[in-house]
Design brief:
By secondary structure, the chain is of the alpha+beta class. It is built from three helices and six strands; from the N terminus they run βββαββααβ. It is globular and about 55 Å long.
Length: about 140
Amino acid sequence: MGKYIVHSTLRPAGTQVMNQTGGHSYLADEPLVAKGTDAAPNPVQYLLGAVGSCMSVTARDIENSEDNLTVKKFKVDVSGETTTFSDGSSKVTHMTIKVTAETNLSPADHQLFLNEVVRKCTVHESLVGAIPMDITFE
């Protein structure tokens, strides 16, 4: 079991938020049209990036645990759609995930590898059931 803590502090400039976790700091913001300063990705972009990053890290973890697997290329493109409701709330209502990968595996084993990446990705598994997702493999 892992435990993660992120401290998020609203800055005085627009909608800038400084996030700190461990020894890392990263900024989040909103675009100018949303009264931000466009100094960093917005929280939804970080969510989409978290999915792609998690799948990529998971692919490397699987590669490191398998003697006969070499990941030659692994790329994840994630897009998301948001909906704003009449009460002003909004949410991510759909994600499209495209995984492009090259390995040294046979086509059947390559597909098993990709399925295992999705199954073991913590972020993806946390969002299953909450956000409809379409995943394709190339």
